[in-house]
């Protein structure tokens, strides 16, 4: 049980309230963390050019770029196209292997959830077409069904796999927080196969959960069997980093160095 430090990635959201772009890169590096996942708003604060420079000088590798979407109007093809190209160009400049797509409220797509899911599929197809020339890949991250109304109508790995079957080049990110409850999870992870697995995110499910979005627990403080899910992901061929992604009002109040120290320790014991 547990992973070595060279497999650990920290998502910038984990310390987003304490550290700006530069502080987070320096902070993770100070703790020997070799990977990080970036956020577009943090990059925007400092400017793309400076962000690229800081990453290049840090020796730290980028595991993913957050994020494309939500589009105010997913049916506006011109805006979807220009925004998608902008985000993918940034991601490639920063050395990110994938861009995470965030659909947002399903009513942006359609009045009815089933229709919204179909239209989301069409949009994913369009985005894949738009980004055909990019090395960087589009990553679909199914979000927990409690977020189906206001954050994403993509809620199971089966749904994401169905989309990947239809749209070439698109991959998935497995986030234990969003998917741990699914009885089909092991089978769907096996169905992904190596090529489709673009990331693996960890945190834990706190009982009771006090907030639908901002109450993720540190690995080991909740009820998710993270080592089991990691084994399935690795059995399917995933060899990339394990990304700590903790959106938590509680952890955002802690000393960020302490947060990273504990996250690294827990990666070694509870993941
Ligand atoms: Zn995630």
Structural account:
There is one protein chain. By secondary structure, the protein is of the alpha/beta class. It is built from ten helices and eight strands. The protein has helices at 21-30, 40-46, 48-58, 77-93, 113-130, 157-166, 176-179, 185-196, 226-235, 256-270; strands at residues 8-11, 35-39, 61-68, 98-101, 137-140, 171-175, 197-202, 242-244. The protein has an eight-stranded parallel β-barrel with strand order 1-2-3-4-5-6-7-8, surrounded by six helices. The longest helix has 18 residues, at 113-130. It is globular, with a radius of gyration of 17 Å. The chain binds zinc ion.
Q: What is the topological layout?
A:
Blueprint (H helix, E strand, L loop, with lengths): L7 E4 L9 H10 L4 E5 H7 L1 H11 L2 E8 L8 H17 L4 E4 L11 H18 L6 E4 L16 H10 L4 E5 H4 L5 H12 E6 L23 H10 L6 E3 L11 H15 L1
Parallel strand pairs: 1-2, 1-8, 2-3, 3-4, 4-5, 5-6, 6-7, 7-8
Helix pairs in contact: 1-3, 6-8, 8-9
The structure holds zinc ion.
Query: Helix content range of the residues, please?
Result: 40-55%
Q: Which stretches of 5+ consecutive residues score pLDDT under 50?
A: none
Tell me the structural class.
alpha/beta
What distance separates the N and C termini? Answer: 6 Å
Mean pLDDT value = 97
Bound molecules: zinc ion
Q: Strand order within the widest sheet?
A: 1-2-3-4-5-6-7-8
- Strand % is 5-15%
């Amino acid at each position: 049980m547990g992973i070595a430090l060279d497999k650990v990635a920290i998502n910038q959201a984990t310390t987003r309230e304490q550290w700006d772009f530069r502080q987070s890169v320096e902070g993770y590096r100070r703790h020997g963390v070799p990977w990080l996942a970036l956020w577009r708003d943090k990059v925007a604060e400092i400017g793309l050019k400076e962000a690229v420079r800081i990453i290049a000088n840090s020796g730290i590798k980028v595991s993913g770029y957050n994020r494309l979407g939500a589009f105010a109007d997913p049916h506006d093809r011109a805006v979807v196209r220009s925004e998608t190209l902008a985000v993918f160009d940034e991601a490639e400049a920063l050395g990110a292997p994938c861009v995470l797509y965030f659909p947002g409220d399903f009513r942006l797509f359609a009045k009815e959830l089933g229709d919204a899911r179909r239209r989301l599929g069409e949009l994913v197809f369009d985005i894949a077409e738009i980004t055909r020339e990019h090395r960087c890949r589009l990553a679909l991250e199914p979000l927990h069904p409690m977020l189906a109304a206001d954050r994403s109508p993509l809620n199971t790995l089966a749904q994401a796999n169905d989309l990947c079957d239809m749209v070439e080049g698109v991959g998935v990110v497995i986030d234990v927080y969003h998917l741990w409850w699914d009885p089909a999870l092991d089978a769907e992870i096996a169905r992904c196969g190596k090529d489709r697995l673009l990331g693996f995110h960890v945190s834990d499910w706190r009982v009771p959960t006090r907030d639908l979005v901002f109450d993720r627990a540190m690995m080991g403080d909740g009820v998710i069997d993270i080592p089991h899910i990691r084994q399935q992901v690795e059995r399917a061929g995933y060899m990339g980093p394990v990304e700590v992604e903790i959106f938590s009002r509680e952890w955002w109040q802690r000393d960020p160095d302490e947060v990273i120290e504990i996250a690294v320790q827990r990666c070694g014991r509870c993941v």
